[in-house]
Amino acid sequence: MSDKTGVITKIQRELFYVRVGNEVYPSKAKGNFRNKKITPVVGDKVDINVENGLGFILKIHPRSVLLHRPEVSNIDKCFVLSSIKSPNINLMLLDKYLLMIEKNSIDCVIVFNKSDLVSEDEKKIYADIYRNVGYKVIFNSNESSITNEELLNEFRNHINCVIGPSGAGKSSTLKKLFPSEDFISGKISDKTQRGKQTTRHIEIKMVDDNTYVLDTPGFSSFDLSFLNDKSEIKNNFVEFRKNSLRCKFNNCDHINEPKCEIKRLVEIGEISQSRYDNYLKIVEEYKKIRRY
């Protein structure tokens, strides 16, 4: 019997797999966590007691970050993957992902997959929207025989989370970047052009000594349960946060208020119209959920 400290790398069939150095221990959570309504998640640093090869989780260390979809803790970099074509890009879903990431103050990279299917002009349209906000944008094609070194370098020396809708090519991209790892990839449905949610559980893989990668299930929709207040929406649209001090009213929601700097910047093209339109839709969705 011994106590060890490690990281939960996978949860499957009610077992928590805890990596301690080069060893992985299937573990169970003590009942006191349920009593406190605390659930261990992938990424948690935990203390375990090991007996006959089975671990029992004694303590969950404080979390630096907790995402809710996917439910994962302590990551320091997030990659949002979106296909440009087949299936077509969903900017609303992308902006929701970015909202969640900003709320958690996580470094973010946007990856537009299947870039071989669109023209350079079309790529520039999408790149400009998000680079002008300040996001790192990388275009990728898994049809190329050449490894995307720019993308690979972004992963190195981080605990990375990869998220995106079904059919975005997440697992295929990771298999190409890290061929020695088993990232599951599946066929695209011809009818829906969506992936078949080939990633069925959440698991962090150690791809080298200082680099970890978490692949997640793809979602075709994304709720707003991670928000606690309506103000978090405007505060986590980066370009709104940067410019809102110039609004006439300190509590400006950038919707119907006069002399709103955000609306002015949208009108002159300094802020993307699609980003602003999605902001309005997200606010309305949140108001319906919380019954404002």
Structure description:
The N and C termini lie far apart (54 Å). This protein is α/β, with parallel strands linked by helices and 292 residues long. Helices cover 28% and strands 27% of the residues. It folds into three domains: 2-60, OB fold (Dihydrolipoamide Acetyltransferase, E2P) (Beta Barrel), CATH 2.40.50.140; 66-215, Rossmann fold (3-Layer(aba) Sandwich); 231-290, Probable gtpase engc, domain 3 (Ribonucleotide Reductase Protein R1, domain 1), CATH 1.10.40.50. The strands form three sheets. A six-stranded mixed β-sheet has the order 10-9-8-11-13-12, sandwiched between helices. The protein has a five-stranded mixed beta barrel with strand order 1-2-3-5-4. It has a two-stranded antiparallel ribbon with strand order 6-7.
Describe the structure concisely for a colleague.
The protein is α/β, with parallel strands linked by helices and 292 residues long. It has helices spanning 31-35, 91-103, 120-131, 149-155, 170-177, 231-235, 238-243, 261-267, 273-290; strands at residues 2-12, 15-20, 23-29, 45-51, 54-60, 66-68, 71-73, 77-83, 107-113, 136-139, 159-163, 203-208, 211-215.
Any descriptors?
single chain, 292 residues, alpha/beta, OB fold (Dihydrolipoamide Acetyltransferase, E2P), Rossmann fold, Ribonucleotide Reductase Protein R1, domain 1, 3 domains, six-stranded mixed sheet, 28% helix, globular
